[in-house]
Specification:
This protein folds into three domains: 4-53, no CATH class; 62-211 and 277-381 and 425-456, 3-Layer(aba) Sandwich (Alkaline Phosphatase, subunit A), CATH 3.40.720; 461-542, Arylsulfatase, C-terminal domain. Helices cover 27% and strands 16% of the residues. The chain has helices at residues 4-59, 87-94, 109-118, 146-151, 278-292, 325-346, 425-433, 449-452, 525-540, and strands at 62-68, 96-103, 156-162, 191-195, 206-208, 211-212, 222-224, 255-256, 259-260, 264-266, 298-303, 353-359, 399-405, 414-421, 463-466, 472-475, 479-482, 506-509. The structure holds 2-acetamido-2-deoxy-6-O-sulfo-beta-D-galactopyranose and calcium ion. Residues 69-70, 108-109, 130, 164, 198, 200, 249-251, 262, 308-309, 361, 367-368, 493-494 line the site of 2-acetamido-2-deoxy-6-O-sulfo-beta-D-galactopyranose.
């Protein structure tokens, strides 16, 4: 006998205990299984999420394009310079691929940058010669640009530093005291902080999104390349003790901050730049842009003033190199690279940023200022083993340093002998970020992403380059052809530069004669014809 409860338990234990235990066991098994399943799948799920993010990041790295000015093939220690040291650039090369056979579109700035940014050869457009500071905008707003490639894919875009591609819709009609009616904002750059042309050309002010930075209403700006301003002393009227640097040739129109310039200028007041602070101002805005856009993909075209004339380094670099100010500004350029790479590391962006470093054209020593660059060069060879210099049709005019770094995606410390050209920026970057180039745009740009990423050694079949007198020359991996043209053998206005211009066809075997010493055109008429045909095809498309 027992209580009902007792009997319940007796009943329960007898009839249901086994079932209860069994259900509990089943329930435990199911939960345990689910737990184990979750624990097993979690890493995979996380990996999946991560790989989606990583994939997105892989396809949308930040891109910083550093374009130096007049920096030669032999001016960096990673390219063999020994009288000047460039540790930050060398580190960049160590973290990526250094190209030994990379070419600009021209041996001067404006046409070179035009080709780089539009993927259209500068010979297709007549007004692509070295631009004055009051030139109207040379790239037309309906042209597709490198900035458009990135902008179309949701990148924030910026042009910072030297521009030299004209501003405003009409030459000499700009209102420097108001908003310019055309500027890089019309070419796909969300933000711009630029020098209109070069440091040796007026106006000597920075322009941000189309208006003068630190505009000084008490000193309205006037600019002319036609006539002087009667009440402003010219170079020749300025007492010698007021100069910070004297000109060796040209640069004798206006004097701004004790330096003679090309072009006349009036006013500016507190907006006028100080040459010793140019690199600092450019770096300051470049770092500001990186900070501001650190959590979204960005593209920055960072065009340094270094190492163009007038070479007037900050006190931090003055006297630091045995080669005089030209060496000092190479060190200042290296400092710029260091600031950018360090900031990327600080923000944790270094792994997800593709950096490409190059120059707009070849090097030059005396380019119009008495800065002792010729006297102090010693055995440094700014153009490396190559003949000629900036302006010339010979190789040193347009073969340029070219380094690509993207940790984890580009092999480290690799040298590539593949021949590449800056003309391919638009198509190659479009491939990188998945942009479609509109029909008819960037006609001379080809995608060489695998080569640029160090994954292929494939060279471009040829590259076409323009010299200072607009004559054209063609390189294939083996041959260099200089098209016959009229022109003096030496640059006429001052620099001691061999032009490479001749009335007869010139052909050089770059494999056995990289210094272009022996014209072998007569020995290889077929090759001459092939190379001339490449130019023929281009001119048909003018
Ligand atoms: C030349 C200038 C030179 C430099 C060059 C353009 C004179 C005497 N010389 O005409 O100093 O400014 O143009 O250089 O005016 S570039 O790198 O921007 O193409
Ligand atoms: Ca240049």
């Amino acid at each position: 006998m027992g209580t009902p409860i007792h009997s319940f338990f007796q009943h329960f234990s007898r009839q249901s205990f086994g079932r209860f235990v069994f259900s509990f066991y089943l329930c435990f098994l199911t939960l345990a299984h689910q737990y184990l399943y979750i624990m097993r799948m979690l890493p995979l799920a996380l990996m999946g999420m991560c790989s989606a993010t990583c994939l997105a990041q892989q396809n949308r790295p930040n891109v910083i394009l550093i374009v130096a000015d007049d920096l030669g093939y032999g001016d960096l220690s990673c390219y063999g310079a020994h009288r000047v040291s460039t540790p930050a650039v060398d580190r960049l090369a160590q973290s990526g691929v250094l190209f030994t056979d990379a070419h600009a579109a021209a041996s001067t700035s404006t046409p070179s940058r035009y080709g780089l940014l539009t993927g259209s050869l500068p010979c297709r457009k007549p007004n692509t010669n070295v631009a004055q500071g009051n030139a109207g905008m040379i790239i037309s707003p309906d042209q597709y640009t490198l900035a458009d490639v990135f902008r179309s894919q949701g990148y924030a875009t910026a042009a910072i530093g030297k521009w030299h591609l004209g501003l405003g819709s009409t030459t000499a009609q700009q209102d420097w005291n108001g908003q310019l009616d055309q500027h890089p904002g019309d070419l796909g750059f969300d933000y711009s902080y630029i020098m209109a042309a070069t440091a040796d050309r007026v106006p000597c002010v920075f322009i941000e999104d189309g208006h003068v930075v630190n505009y000084d209403p008490s000193a309205p700006i006037e600019v002319s390349y036609q006539k002087r301003f009667p009440d402003v002393p010219t170079y020749h009227e300025t007492p010698i003790d007021q100069f910070k640097q004297r000109s060796s040739h040209g640069h004798d129109y206006a004097v701004v901050n004790g330096i003679g310039r090309i072009g006349w200028m009036k006013g500016g007041g507190k907006a006028l730049w100080q040459d010793e602070h140019l690199a600092d101002s450019i770096v300051d805005r470049a770092l500001g842009f990186i900070d501001k856009h650190q959590s979204e993909p960005f593209f920055m075209y960072l065009a340094t003033n270094d190492v163009h004339v007038p070479r007037y380094p900050s006190d931090r670099f003055r006297g630091k190199s045995p080669m005089g100010v030209r060496g000092d500004v190479i060190m200042q350029f290296d400092w710029t690279v260091e600031q950018v790479t360090r900031r990327l590391q600080q923000l944790g962006l270094d792994k997800n940023t593709l950096i490409i470093l190059t120059s707009d054209n070849g090097p030059i020593l005396d380019d119009g200022y008495d800065d002792k660059s010729e006297e102090l060069v010693g055995d440094h060879r700014p153009g490396g083993i190559y003949r000629g210099a900036k302006y010339s049709a010979y190789e040193a005019g347009s073969i340029v340093p070219f380094i690509v770094s993207w940790p984890g995606h580009v092999p480290q410390g690799k040298k590539s002998d593949a021949m590449i050209t800056q003309m391919d920026f638009v198509a190659t970057m479009a491939k990188l970020v998945g942009a479609d180039i509109p029909e008819g745009q960037a006609p001379d740009s080809r995608n060489y992403l695998k080569t640029w990423m160090g994954k292929s050694s494939k060279s471009v079949p040829y590259c076409i380059t323009m010299a200072q007198n607009r004559s054209l020359h063609v390189r294939s991996k083996r041959w260099k052809y200089i098209h016959p043209c009229n022109g003096p053998e030496m640059i006429q206005w001052g620099p001691k530069v061999e032009t490479g211009y001749k009335k007869i066809p010139q052909l050089f075997d770059m494999k056995s004669d990289p210094g272009e010493t022996t014209n072998v055109a007569d020995l290889h008429p077929k090759i001459v014809k092939q190379m001339a045909d490449v130019l023929e095809q281009i001119s048909e498309k003018y």
